[in-house]
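Comment thread on ticket #2218

A.B. wrote:
> Attaching the input chain for the structure job we discussed in standup.
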Amino acid sequence: MRRPFALVGFTYLLAQVAAVFLGLPWALPVACVLLFLMGVSLMIPRLRMGIFPVALCAASLAFGGFAALAPAVTLPGEELNDREASFVGTLEEAPYRSYDNRYCTIRLESLDEEPVDFRVRLLVPENLVGEAGTCLKGKAHFYLPRGGDGFSSRNYYASQGISVCAYLYGYEPYQVIPPASKSCWHHIQDLRISLGEAVDFLLPEEEAGLLKGVLLGDKSGISPELTADFRTVGLSHVMAVSGLHMTTVANLLTAIFLALHVPRRGRAVLASLGVLLFMAVVDFAPSASRSGIMCLLYLAGGFLSRRSDSLNSLGLAVWILCLVSPFAGADVGLLLSFSATLGLILCSGPICRRLDACVSSWKYGRRLFHAIHVVLATSISATLFTFPAMMLTFRTVSVVGLFANLLALWPTTLLLQFGLGAAILQLLLPGTLAALPLALPAGWLAKYLCTVVSLLAQIPYANIPLSMGFVLLWVAAVLFLLAFWLFMGHSKNSLRIVGWLSCILLLAGVFSYQISRRNLTRIAITDVGSGLSVAITRNGNAVVIGCEGYSAQAIKEELQGQGIRSLDAMLLFSHFGEEAHNASDVLETFSTEKLIVPSGYMDDFLQTRVDCIGEVYSYQNWARLTLGEAFTVELVPGAALLEANGATMLFCSADMQVEVLPKTWRSPDFVVLTQAVEGVAGEYTILSMDEGEVQEAARGRRNVAVTAGRGTVVVELTDEQTCRIRRDA
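C.D. wrote:
> Ran it. Output below, let me know if you need it in another format.
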């Protein structure tokens, strides 16, 4: 067996991803089955000495390890869900901003005066100031992150070692106690903060936010819109601290020590220390740890005068990470980093050679093509191998992914190099212009990336959701065509045929999908916790009803997935607070011809988006919107009634009072509730609320569908008055 670590590491990671998807109840039975199959393979002479027993053993250990270790991470959250408790904990980092809120990660030391030891993601007030090592005492409400098995928020936080989320009560006093002394870890966190502050000082806000995301993996300064655009064009892996970062750090340090005439082994040791320090600065993120371990193995090979094997190094790195954390397979950054690295190792070299062979007969332009073929090969390899991870995690397929990688690869590399150099110089020589020659090109590159990504994201169907039925068929067809190409002997003609057929099938799929969606009214009740956030689309037209819930991201992704660029109307149940904030977030991306709100003064969030609004209407007791002959919406305080394709759907917000509803509204075909309501009954009930509230609200009702962290509920109505209800996870 030439590469044992590659076999064990890759198998262990894939098995752990499968365990995360299947969930804890399945882990132990699957581990036992795999162990039995390993025993069977050892009894067969032809298989005994092959890779099957090793692979089955690794997979069995992965499932068994998940079954044994996962409860230690998840159990505290399950016990604390929807509870209030007094706590004492230590901040592991300074509070940071995300989606207009401030969060920090704390390690709890006691809970209701009982000793504990686990990590919590805490929502903190604006005026709370602290640093790593600060002791925090107060009273908080604890809750589980949203989602169940698979790539959910709950499992993502579990991959970071976070068991539960919480928020401080604004009316409860809290106590902040600065640390008496700082440990080495706290000094490293201070270095991370200082690097971020140096970037903020050197660059404008948007460019600084992107550079901190690329350099440090800190996405707090990146707008949700830009984050969504990176996801749309298939460049999310750019935000994962990966091999590019470690290679840059190692090469930079090696060059410095070489200039200082440090011996070869001394350079390897010092560069290794620098890589370890950078891993600590980025908080040992799984993707950074994977690339850091590989880089350390490479440097160790140089120290020992041995050549390291890339596949073995990659396998050993992911195996170590999976052994450390049972939820490592749920970390999207690790999967994207692993997939891209595997693609580069396996495919970039052969693609380069094949591209060189294609232009070997050229008289002109051959040298220029040789200069860019590495970029092309790297982009193709990274795009192909990250495609499955992107599809599984984000439930979408980026059509412009390859083109985006071609345009972004080298600018990202240069941005990282210039940005790191500028930040270090600003720290070492503050108050001087030493960092300016590096900061200027870093700012231009960051602006270039923001512009390119935003433009590509606006291309119609740049990102196709899996909810479009033809996508999975198209993926299966492409895999079949690739298998055909391999069977035909890797010929150039067959490869061209495969490429053209793939493009034709995709275009045909998009076209046929659009034809099939004509005159279809799609009502998407997005999963936003306890609140109403509904997108109604038909033939390219779109209306949003309500923007309640914890975030506007879900409804924005729904609209983008349907190819919507602007809204015909937005109807709100209130004009202040959470809903106004979410509505303004939506209007940053989608302009609207009409905004219909209750009478009264609009929140400042909405006032800042007036330029994106064609007309603003306010209503006191009743309002009505008609969109052609497609559907009508009537509003009363706290509720809306949709009439479309011969069906009626009643939306009840949290502020609705049954007394204000007309009697004809109280028995619709569909009713959407955000809380337990009596006096309203529909043939079908959709509960848009958190999981803890579902049982009471569903009591006595039939044909119930719930969001509750499980995904968007979609109702499709045709002109033939047929109905289809399904879920987009």
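A.B. wrote:
> Thanks. Noting for the ticket: The chain is about 50% helix and 20% strand.
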